Amino acid sequence: MNFLWDIALRAQQQGIKEEELFLTQAQEYSPFYEQSFSCINETQIRSKTIELNLLFRFADIFQVILSEDAQELPDLNRYLIDAALHVILYSDLHHGVTKRDIYIMRVLYELSQGMYWKEAAERLQIIPKKDRVRIATLMLNQIQTGSSLKMFCKGLIVVYPDALLYQIRRDRKKLLLYLKDDRTEAGEEKLMFIKDLFLPIGYDLRVFWKYHFGIIGVEDAMRIDETAIY
Prior knowledge:
Layout: H1 4-13, E1 22-25, E2 49-52, H2 59-62, H3 74-94, H4 99-112, H5 118-124, H6 129-145, H7 149-159, E3 164-167, E4 174-179, H8 185-198, E5 204-209, E6 212-213, E7 227-228
Parallel strand pairs: 1-2, 4-5, 6-7
Antiparallel strand pairs: 3-4
């Protein structure tokens, strides 16, 4: 974690918003790094005041304001530096962003605001932040290509990587889903969220929590006291 954009993304993962960060010039720093953490290999944001070596990448911008001749109003300088760095950070974070990335961020925003349906915004909060962009990406794909069982499978794997989905051969629209997790309210909410987003109309889904249903001839699925009745 060295550059400003990297620090901001790590803060976001820890639940710290960009506007909560105060960006300033470090008193002590290495000329070889942009960050000035006490540990070079720091992986956590431990303070909302982020000290940086502004001369590492931004000497042309800040060398005048950091000079001794410009220290008559030090408090003003600190806030000017913070404001300027937030502008630079915005550019850093959006560097290389494609048109598709913007669409994905828009879909994620609309989900979070309940624009599709109210419960979606509430259920989205249960999904880990690192997985929300993946779900928004699948949603954009679905908007562009239409719903499908394959899209539902992909969405399911985002929240339940170990899920097992079966399709009844004699009735292709009947599905059996095994989840090794205990059945909890939060777990059901996550599953309902994915089901409402991606499961095509007309499909019937039956869920087995923790215990797999019995399959004759498959030893792991026929354990005593660990087999669900189908």
